[in-house]
Amino acid sequence: MSPFLFVLVMEVLTLILQQRIGQNGGFSFHWRCDRIQLFQLGFADDLLLFSKADPNSVSLFKEGLTTFAELSGLQANLHKSHLILSSSAAPLRATLLTILGFQEGHLPLRYLGLPLLASRLSVADCHPIIQKIEARIRGWDGILLSFAGRVQLIKSVLSALQVYWAMAFILPKHVIKDIEKRLRNFLWKGSIETGYAKVAWQQVCRPVDEGGLGIRDIHALNKGLMSRHLWRLIVNERSSIWVNWISHYRLRNYSVWTISTRSGTWGWRKLIRLRDSLRPCITYRIGDGTSFSLWHDPWHDRGPLISQFPLGPRHTSLPASAPLSIVIFEGNWTWPPVTHMESVDITHDLPTIHGGPDRIRWTGPRGAFSAAAAYTVFCPPGPKVGWSSLLRALSKSLGSALYYGWLSLGDYLQWISHGCNTWAQRVCYAKRICRKVMST
Length: 440
Hints:
- Residues 1-116 form the Reverse transcriptase domain.
- This is Reverse transcriptase domain-containing protein.
- InterPro entries: RT_dom.
- Residues 1-18 form the signal peptide.
- The chain folds into four domains: 3-106, no CATH class; 127-223, no CATH class; 236-377, no CATH class; 389-439.
- The protein is built from 19 helices and ten strands.
- The relative contact order is 0.07.
- The longest helix has 21 residues, at 3-23.
- By secondary structure, it is mostly helical.
């Protein structure tokens, strides 16, 4: 069945379950799903159902699945379907398993190739990434690859293996070091065996224009990819179920900018800490003020007002959950009379009201937000080198031209930086570079 047809079929299942839940008042949502009425998540041929652990709710799921099977002929695979219960539902375990006929499952489970976790992501959880990289490298054993060929394989194949994980988790530092170790060994040795690195990995990961090989820095790439989730929260992408859930159960009356970085799960704390790096690249353009929080969004040059003036809501009698529009009337600022000096400071240097809808703009690199733009935030550009065009030409060559050319040019630059920059020394060293490159 094609993915499009499967989506249509799953929509039928959703309607069946909605009808069952609506007609029967005995259904109870999961306590972390009731505010947004969430009971189902589906992608490809994987389906997750959520409810309170009680016989009535589980029976409604069973009835809906049975009706769907009668209409479509598609049945849940009892050998691959699992019922996951919290410890508080242990007394109902046997009853619920009998109703559904599923096996009992325990976290962590694999879903869409990723682990479903109830705790922090561990090094052991990420072992499949390391195994994939090692398997690819071992598969190339015995193949005579040039230095340029290994560089290209790292860029196009090995660096892409962890991207899927890097879009879902902030990887532990130890895991990133293990990945970089294997990439480094393959670059210099052609295998997973430890070899002598002739250039620091940080320099290898610089762009070609900066004297590197253009291999992506995994740590910065991971943060750049995860920043996409933070950006969706900042612009309040309401079409996203995840954004809707986070707004109701994590942020509540706070914003991304003022929520504590010490509460919540390990993954959430890691994600929210990226905000300080993104903040200089984001601008709030005030329209009618209905989309911005008066106290918790950084529409003011001073940042979120609640951080600068913790007693501001009390002194101004403006609720901490108030929208910015509460102090805007017909395109002008209309702050209530205040006498406390701290509150008076808030009304100084107010930004311009532009009218129309509120807008949040990415003013950082590349002009519009993307994972690539966020990558440059965590891996900022450095000084350019004058021989990048030669390096680009060498990268298209065969044999060891790239290897010797890159190392020689890099050494030449170091000579100059250390004061060995007389004309005779430059000519002598340039001849050595040419002989090495031409001999390849």
